[in-house]
Design brief:
mainly beta; 45 strands; 18-stranded antiparallel sheet
């Protein structure tokens, strides 16, 4: 089985390890001062009509629970006016309460109305008239109107384990770790909330719109509780969130599209109800409640606060429905605040997003973790001259100095002081780092997340552990062991190797590679490597020459039909690369290799050269690669980097030049290749993944150096391959391929009774390939008569898949049903096939 999207490994494993915490209480939220927006404590909270407070808060956050149904909450604090809140299942979590010393608060008391007014048509709905004016005066981010701008960004990410109890605290897993519960927060029901992770970061943002378009986001300070050196944990936290614009038609959460309630297509998804006219920060605003027409779709519910004069969005709340169909997630809520400097633009003020994550169950009683991210935007300055050097990358940006800020710096940098529980996280994790049992747990998490076991004293990683066993026709059972150097997360150099043994061919294989990066700014890197191994060539068109790259097909455990088309490869590679601009890499490879069949009786790579019959292809070539990843985000600054989840495209242009006579090379040839891959959010219709490749061999070369349209004879999922093609079925001098795969996120199946309860998601795909193969290219190979290109017609496959198969929140299995569209008269083909595998994503 192939597990797709490796950037989500850490998140999946983190959730599996988080199985011990509980879901939200009956009511929870935050209490702030209406004037200062600072969190306040010491508030008495009364449940229903009780005269006895159920809880006196010790921080700005609260959780209360009762044995009976909670339908009302009252909040009382000395010198503040009493606030009353009606509670329904729809607003029981993520409540935002502002207490005021005056009779009129900035945001009036929150009252949820269950009734939905009925209108003959949307034009009778007063909310529709308001939203029409919002769309007509759609605002753009105010940063775009100024020649230059700067602003400060403070980000805080916190994970809390919630709803713990005394029985949980007495579990054996916490033996010798009991002190962590000294940092707990008690709730009215006797349950416990425990903060477990806190990350703070300060960024300085610079932008220029004229005369040229340039931006820079500079990390100037970062502080992480207990995990400063564990980048996997920090990456897991930051990977949960995306930047959103409420005015867009589609909002990106987890790279899944949610329809925006402010988008021009909102009325196709939501019902709107004008609730009241209130005051927000001194501005009169319409308060509009919106609800999804169908709760089974990916959508939000909440309130919009629209300025009565300018029809600008002053604020919004977005809360997912109880039937949210996202893996590992039980709920999402976001609060947005905007400033509006003029009638055409807006500026972000504050964004707060909470995500309730559970590894298995969707039930409210399930164990969970609350992940909260708050971002404050401040210190805006416009049209201030900016020097060119600001936008140039410097060595200092890539050092670890941003972790060296003292406590005095953080006191000044925070827009609000830390709560008591937040301060306790740093102290608690500091103590945990000195506890052997905790370090063993972290070690297990790191091993499963990275695939390597780190021997810190030696600076070595052993692994990858998921590649230890494989099986194929030539080697039989195959064992692979490897290791790499690893001293810190930002190592500028790395040496890695592996050795493998096949019990059928009784041959030892090996590979080794060394890389060194001279400069962190432009990532100038050199490397060298060599390997001798049995590989399945022809499963990737635009491949890389990296020695440690490993194809799945050479170690497939289960396959369709006999796979005898494996090659024996001896290869040596030298390379250098540089990034002259951010996310744009130039790489030059020099490769010397010899290729022959690993199974001469079942697969021939023999060819004619100067009238002589040869079985080994000797090749020396240079490859120039231009690789662009605009918008991609990475963590770490060393030789290896972790990539954040984004919708960034991948664009590759490669030129390969074979040099006859160089180290015994047999052929002169020229090859040009192009690749484009990008996922697109298509409104509320889901996500479309597009992969386009094209290439051409300008000279005649034998089969070992030809372009093979990638087949997949395994029963596993494999991206950018043709499920119903046999290996080497199509060979081409010139080729183009296109893969279109659309994920509907359950939009269609949600209409089907009973089926919709399974929360399955549908996928549709079509794949096509076209190419040509010259007579000379056929004639050079001994068995060239077997090979042809999809010239007569475009070869195509189509089908559908079902993903999100599983139970509760653990839905990581996918099954595809594939049909072959044409070339059906060929022998030994499969016209229909089923592929399956795990894909760990949201």
């Amino acid at each position: 089985m192939l597990i797709n999207r490796p950037r989500y490994y850490p998140f999946f494993i983190f959730l599996l390890l988080s199985h011990f915490v509980y879901a939200q209480n009956a009511a929870s939220g935050k209490i702030t001062d209406a004037k200062t927006n600072k969190e306040i404590s010491g508030v008495d909270i009364f449940i229903n009509d009780s005269n006895k407070p159920a809880l006196t808060t010790t921080s700005g956050s609260f959780m209360v629970q009762s044995d009976s149904i909670i339908y009302k909450l009252k909040f009382l604090r000395k010198n503040y006016a009493l606030e009353t809140l009606d509670v329904t299942p729809e607003n029981a979590t993520n409540i935002f309460v502002k207490l005021s010393q005056e009779k009129v608060s900035d945001i009036q008391e929150v009252v949820i109305h269950n009734e939905r007014p009925k209108y003959k048509n949307k034009k009778e709905n007063p909310a529709y008239a308001i939203m029409q004016k919002v769309w007509a005066r759609k605002r753009n981010n105010g940063l775009d109107k100024f020649d230059t701008y700067t602003y400060k960004e403070y980000e805080k990410i916190q994970f809390d384990a919630n709803n713990l109890d005394s029985a949980f605290m007495n579990r054996k897993i916490f033996n010798k770790l009991e002190f962590i519960f000294d940092y707990k927060d008690s709730t009215a029901s006797g349950k416990i909330g425990l903060p477990v992770f806190l990350n703070e970061a300060v960024y300085e943002n610079y932008g220029e719109n004229r005369p040229s378009k340039r931006t820079k986001r500079l990390l100037v300070a970062q502080k992480t509780s207990g995990f400063q050196d564990n980048q996997i944990v920090t990456l897991t936290a930051k990977n949960l969130y995306r930047d959103i614009n409420i005015y867009d038609n589609t909002l990106n959460y987890f790279d899944i599209g949610f329809p925006s309630p402010v988008g021009e297509t909102g009325f196709s998804t939501y019902d709107y109800n004008l609730v009241d006219t209130i005051s927000i920060r001194g501005e009169n605003a319409f308060k509009i409640r919106y609800l999804p027409k169908r709760t089974e779709v990916l959508a939000f519910q909440g309130y919009l606060y629209i300025d009565t004069d300018s029809y600008a969005v002053l604020g919004a709340t977005l809360k997912s429905t109880q039937k949210i169909n996202v893996n590992f997630v039980n709920g999402i809520s976001t609060e947005l605040e905007y400033d509006n400097p003029d009638e055409n633009t807006f500026l972000p003020r504050k964004f707060v997003t909470e995500i309730e994550m559970t590894p298995f169950s969707k039930k409210k009683t399930a164990k969970s973790i609350i992940a909260k991210r708050s971002v404050d935007y401040s210190e805006y300055e416009f049209n201030k001259p900016l020097e060119d050097k600001i936008f140039k990358r410097t060595e200092e940006e890539y050092s670890d100095s941003f972790t060296d800020k003292d406590d005095e710096y953080w006191v000044k940098a925070r827009p609000d002081s830390l709560s008591k529980s937040e301060k306790g996280i740093y102290e608690m994790l500091g103590k945990l780092e000195q506890t052997p049992k905790f370090n063993r747990i972290v070690k297990l998490y790191e091993t499963l997340g990275s695939g390597y076991y780190n021997v810190k004293k030696l600076g070595i990683d052993i692994g990858p552990i998921f590649s230890v066993y494989g099986k194929n026709e030539v080697e039989g059972d195959r064992i692979r062991l490897g290791a790499r150097t690893y001293f810190t997360r930002n190592d500028p150099w790395r040496v890695q190797f592996y050795t493998a043994y096949g019990f059928k061919d009784q041959q030892i294989k090996y590979g080794a590679e060394a890389r060194f990066m001279f400069n962190r700014v432009n990532r100038f890197t050199v490397g060298a490597g060599t390997r001798r191994d049995v590989l399945q060539l022809g499963v990737q068109l635009t491949n890389d020459d990296g020695i440690m790259a490993r194809t799945f097909a050479s170690s497939t455990i289960f396959a369709r039909g006999d796979n005898a088309s494996l090659s024996s490869l001896n290869q040596t590679n030298l390379f250098t690369s540089i990034e002259p601009w951010k996310n744009f890499q130039i790489r030059l490879d020099g490769t010397m290799q010899s290729i022959k069949s690993a199974n001469p009786d079942g697969f021939s790579l023999m060819y004619y050269k100067d009238g002589a019959l040869r079985k080994t292809t000797n090749d020396s070539h240079f490859t120039l690669s231009l690789i662009a990843r605009p918008g991609a985000k990475f963590s770490q600054t060393g030789i290896d980097r972790y990539e954040h989840g984004t919708l960034a495209p991948t664009i590759v242009l490669k030129y390969t030049r074979g040099v006859e006579g160089l180290f015994g090379s047999d052929f002169n040839y020229n090859k040009l290749q192009f690749l484009f891959y990008k996922p697109f959010l298509i409104g509320n219709l889901g996500k479309l993944q597009v992969n386009f490749e094209a290439g051409k061999n300008f000279d005649t070369v034998p089969l070992a150096l030809q372009n093979i349209i990638p087949g997949n004879q395994s029963y596993s999922l494999a991206q950018n391959t043709f499920a119903q093609l046999n290996y080497y079925e199509f060979v081409a001098d010139t080729y183009t391929t296109l893969h279109l795969e659309h994920h509907f996120n359950g939009k269609i199946l949600s209409f089907i009774p009973l089926i919709k309860k399974l929360k399955l998601r549908e996928i549709a795909f079509i794949r096509g390939a076209y190419g040509t193969l010259s007579d000379a290219s056929k004639a050079i190979n001994v068995e060239g008569f077997k090979y042809s290109a999809p010239t007569d017609h475009i070869y195509y496959e189509y089908g559908f898949g079902i993903e999100n198969i599983g139970f509760g929140n653990l839905r990581i299995f996918r099954v595809d049903f594939n049909w072959r569209g044409n070339y059906l008269d060929r022998p030994d083909i499969s016209t229909f096939g089923v592929k399956a595998g795990f894909q760990v994503n949201f």
